[in-house]
Amino acid sequence: MSNVAPPAAGRTHEFTTKSGADTVEVGRKLVRLLAPPQLMILRGDLGTGKTTLVKGIAQALDAAEPDEVTSPTFSLIHEYDGELDGKPVKLFHLDVYRLEGERQLESLGLDELLTPDALVLVEWGEKFKSIRKKATGEIAITAMGGDARRITVTLKD
Ligand SMILES: Nc1ncnc2c1ncn2[C@@H]1O[C@H](COP(=O)(O)OP(=O)(O)OP(=O)(O)O)[C@@H](O)[C@H]1O
Ligand SMILES: [Mg+2]
Predict the structure, then answer these.
(1) Is 133 part of any domain?
(2) What is the pLDDT, as a whole number, of residue 7?
(3) How far apart are alpha carbons 148 and 55 in whole angstroms?
(4) Residue 47 beta carbon below 6 angstroms from any ligand 1 atom
(5) What CATH number does the domain containing 101 carry?
(6) What's the rounded Cα separation, in Å, for the pair 124 and 128?
């Protein structure tokens, strides 16, 4: 499956990486851009490194170690408690790849997750119009050949 939705408009920040470890490090860095509340779509083809990026984000928030962050493919949602600049952050990592239709999505209760201290990261969120509407931005990961990736963070105005 490829990503068909047009990219979101807004402020952008670009990073390039050459390995999974690099992408974890970029995750640690870009967490600064993601002060809650935030609902970010994580967009990129299968296996480009969306979950890998979340490992770095979770680590920087002191929410989980990289090896504790696994793909929420079947559980759909993983929740971690962390903090940014001394303020508590609820990190929610979702993967909606397997969900079919807005009705299945509704049962996830996405709206209830988006509290003032929430950082919600949704892999494959661009599949759903309702998520595209609610999203405060997106992080797109593009494969550039071999292990190289371009990571573009876009925050809506
Ligand atoms: N530059 C890179 N950035 C991220 N991951 C990389 C990079 N180079 C190689 N990899 C490897 O690619 C894989 C990415 O897997 P990951 O589960 O993070 O992808 P994903 O985008 O979440 O996939 P899915 O859509 O299936 O959930 C990992 O095995 C990782 O080590
Ligand atoms: Mg993943």
Answers:
(1) yes
(2) 59
(3) 18
(4) yes
(5) 3.40.50.300
(6) 8
Pick the atom of ligand 1 nearest to 55's CA.
18
**Diameter of the chain by CA atoms?**
40
Q: For a substitution probing ligand 1, which of 1, 50, 51, 52 has the most ligand atoms within 8 Å of its CB?
A: 52
Structure tokens at 108: 């996830």
Q: Any idea which of 34-38, 63-67, 99-103 has the lowest mean pLDDT?
A: 99-103
Q: Letter for the amino acid at 119? A: L
Collect all residues with Cβ–Cβ distance below 8 Å to 30 and sequence separation of at least 6: 13, 15, 57, 139, 151, 153
* Ligand 1 pocket member 138 (CB < 6 A): no
Sequence-distant (≥ 6) Cβ neighbours of residue 111 within 8 angstroms:
134
SS3 137: strand
For residue 95, give its domain range.
Answer: 13-155
pTM for the structure as a whole: 0.94
The number of distinct structural domains making up the chain is: 1
